[in-house]
Amino acid sequence: MWFLGDTLSIKVYQALAAALEMRPERRVILSDSGNFPSDLYMAEGLIKALGRGDELRVVAPDEVTDAITDEVAVTLLTEVDYRNGRLHDMGEITRRAQDAGAVTIWDLAHSAGALPVDLAGCGADFAVGCTYKYLNGGPGAPAFIYVAPRHATRASPALSGWLGHAAPFAFEAGYRPGKGIERMRVGTPPVLAMAAL
Ligand SMILES: Cc1ncc(COP(=O)(O)O)c(C=O)c1O
């Protein structure tokens, strides 16, 4: 299930917060040194906000598979390296991570529009990406988030903005998450950018 809106950094934060919540007994976020810096920075920021001692473990891209241990709560990886085009094997890493009990997040910023992506086929848990690279939306075009249908009704959006509320125009005092992927909407969408996309 997809939702389009906000920036990719925001969507990384939401996916990571939701994924960590699904593995409360684990404290390691596994990423690699080929990842785009904002993904790593957002993880650092979330770790600080949570304040419970989570660890961002960054390994070399070719060491990712071996670094998937039963300590890992979440793998946060960008499928295609923005520097050199190196491609992770999404199906194989997803399988290894899930076998070890980890939740997978794939950043598709450099994949979407450039190569076929089969999230459902490889059983990925979460994915995020932008539409301003190979989808040609132009700078500022909205990002996207994918939540596997099996998680969509219980994934926590973390950034609980009014347009992700179950009844945004009821203007209730308290937050209730929208049904399914709708809860991943944070605020007012960039309508002109979406129209251009
Ligand atoms: C892989 C990746 N992740 C995150 C970002 C950050 O995206 P945004 O500026 O939309 O927050 C980018 C931007 O180029 C990116 O390439």
Question: How would you describe what is shown here?
Answer:
GO terms for molecular function: kynureninase activity; pyridoxal phosphate binding. It comes from Roseovarius marisflavi. This is Kynureninase. The structure is a single chain. With 197 residues, the protein is an alpha/beta fold. It has one domain (2-156): Type I PLP-dependent aspartate aminotransferase-like (Major domain) (Aspartate Aminotransferase, domain 2, 3-Layer(aba) Sandwich), CATH 3.40.640.10. 26% of the residues lie in helices and 18% in strands. Strands 1-7-6-5-4-2-3 form a seven-stranded mixed sheet, sandwiched between helices. Helix 1 (8-21) packs across helix 2. The site of pyridoxal-5'-phosphate has 12 residues, from helix 1 and helix 2.
Keywords:
alpha/beta, Aspartate Aminotransferase, domain 2, 197 residues, 18% strand, binds pyridoxal-5'-phosphate
For this structure, the CATH topology is Aspartate Aminotransferase, domain 2
The second-level CATH architecture is 3-Layer(aba) Sandwich
Number of helices: 6
The radius of gyration is: 16 Å
> Helical amount among residues, as a percent range?
25-40%
- Specify the biggest β-sheet: 7 strands, mixed
> Which regions are unreliable across 5 or more consecutive residues at pLDDT < 50?
none
Full CATH superfamily name: Type I PLP-dependent aspartate aminotransferase-like (Major domain)
Mean of the pLDDT scores?
A: 96
Euclidean distance between termini CA atoms? 19 Å
Order of helices and strands: EHEHEHEHEHEEH
- Major sheet: order of its strands? 1-7-6-5-4-2-3
- Class computed from helices, strands and strand pairing: alpha/beta
> How many DSSP E strands?
7
Named once each, the bound ligands are: pyridoxal-5'-phosphate
